[in-house]
């Protein structure tokens, strides 16, 4: 998505969170699934030889039964507020009752940093964390409702893109200039 553009700014800190730094050019980089996007910079492949590694036979056998035997017996209660799967994540994002895009997005720009309003945030971030919904899908769906609440969508996209870019491209900040 934006990683290709950000990778050219190796020594710049790419995170901004005041909602004023997303440009139309940035939003043009937000593409639908299926469009070709070069996600691994060529210099990374060249410098670290990621494409030339032969991983066959390089791992040792792990006795998983011994490793997890103590944890299997431990009681961990099942959570009830978060379901499994992409369909549940999409329902949390754009469903019809008390879902983020349909009811809570309009106040996102004012409520996102208010600890007294916990529903001001997206909320079900486990869906993103455990890869049940992609950041790109969230951004695309939010962009569809831009006409209804443009300031809130801009704030949401700013947070989403800046945080995801930092998480995905933090290693770029560590490379020598």
Automatic annotation (TrEMBL):
Tell me the SUPFAM superfamilies matching this sequence: Cryptochrome/photolyase FAD-binding domain
One GO MF term attached to the UniProt entry: deoxyribodipyrimidine photo-lyase activity
Which biological process annotations from GO are given for this protein?
A: photoreactive repair
State the name under which the record lists this protein: Uncharacterized protein
In its UniProt entry, the species of origin is given as Heracleum sosnowskyi
């Amino acid at each position: 998505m934006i990683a290709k553009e950000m990778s050219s700014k190796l020594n710049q800190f790419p995170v901004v969170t005041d909602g004023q730094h997303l440009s139309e050019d940035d939003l043009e980089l937000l593409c639908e699934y299926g469009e070709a996007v070069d996600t691994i910079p060529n210099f990374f492949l060249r410098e670290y030889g990621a494409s030339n590694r032969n991983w066959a036979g390089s791992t040792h056998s792990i006795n998983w039964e011994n490793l997890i035997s103590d944890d299997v017996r431990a009681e961990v209660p099942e959570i009830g507020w978060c379901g499994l799967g992409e369909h549940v994540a999409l329902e949390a994002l754009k469903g019809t009752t008390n879902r983020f895009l349909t009811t809570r997005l309009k106040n996102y720009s004012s409520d996102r940093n208010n600890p007294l309003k916990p529903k001001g945030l997206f909320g079900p971030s486990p869906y993103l964390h455990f890869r049940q919904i992609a950041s790109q899908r969230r951004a695309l769906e939010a962009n569809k409702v831009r006409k209804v609440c443009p300031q809130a969508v801009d704030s949401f996209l700013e947070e989403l893109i800046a945080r995801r870019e930092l998480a995905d491209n933090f290693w770029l900040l560590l490379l020598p200039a």
